[in-house]
Write the structure tokens for this entry.
Amino acid sequence: MLDPDPRFLAKLRQQAEFTDAELAEFLECWETKLLRKKDHYLRAGDICRSTAYVNKGCLRRYEIGADAKENILNFALEDWWVGDLESFWNQKPGRFYIQALEDCELLLLSRVEFVKACDRFPKYKAFHDEKMHRSYFATLKRMTVATSGSAEEKYLLLAKEQPQLFQRVPLHYIASYLGIEPESLSRLRRKLAGK
Amino acid sequence: MLDPDPRFLAKLRQQAEFTDAELAEFLECWETKLLRKKDHYLRAGDICRSTAYVNKGCLRRYEIGADAKENILNFALEDWWVGDLESFWNQKPGRFYIQALEDCELLLLSRVEFVKACDRFPKYKAFHDEKMHRSYFATLKRMTVATSGSAEEKYLLLAKEQPQLFQRVPLHYIASYLGIEPESLSRLRRKLAGK
DNA sequence: CGGTTTCCTTGATCTAGGTTAGGAAATACC
DNA sequence: GGTATTTCCTAACCTAGATCAAGGAAACCG
């Protein structure tokens, strides 16, 4: 049934300090969700009703700006968490889209089960809070990168930090993530290749 | 001695649900810190050892990028909180500078007292967590604004949302916040004034 | 009070990246 | 197997904002 990535279990054992017995009980609350390429896990206006772990596949999170352009905030590969934490937190409609770029397998814990689990396993609540903090700090760092420096710097940084993305994500999505047009990315790559 | 803004007390009473007796005890742990214009409350490399409330004055939070340029992340007026949450959280050196733009009066709760207070008043811990979440969600929103749209759009948005800033903060700092050069801001304002 | 910063503006020039308009290779679809 | 769509690239031109250079006004300081 549920067939979690070993890293999923390792995290719960190490970071949330679950025992094997607790883990077995906890996993009962989770369910598997399959997404076909291009399916959306979440759309703007939806309320995020579960926390999700990427067991298999690759997704992108984006929003649509006032100018009707898609603006990619991040990609999620295996062993990442996806969702709209704000919407999940306050159960109000969010503004993000989360879409599968490949066929995906997500592990879901519904909001209801999440609340129960936080109650039953305080260690899990602490684990989730910690995740939220890390996510906050990562966003702050990302903001620094996004607002300062040239497209070239941002490209080189991404190439260094997440080279796997280039094997799995079309370049025009990478361009959107970098905040430039596909044409500019193409030019940039040609320039860098010629060096 | 401690002479908090009424809004400071109101927040603790309403959001943290402190009783008057608890409040009196809690306030004992706080201290006042005065900053002269241009003094720094925090510098890159410092460990943030207190959580601070702006009782009076105006500050800017900025970082210095790889290109040695100052990059302003936000301003803080009265009734805002300032600090480096990441550094305060994990007690490691941070990368932000926080500087007084006017003579300021801050109310500080040291890290040590903070930990005690979280223990003694779980409601305060919840209040602080909630603040942290709001701060996270605000950063996410700010990221959207910062990475999409023209300088003009960002300027008009700021003028609408924080008009008080223009009375108290030099324009070249506003320019830095908007991610443009002072010259560009000057030209932009002339263009808008002529309309 | 005069001198030095700090702050704002203006003009001329430059450039990264946007825009527009193709067109070819790779994939998916019937 | 052939058509349609998606993905990726190229080239010519354009624009927002950076950069460089200069000057003036206000605030601050001895």
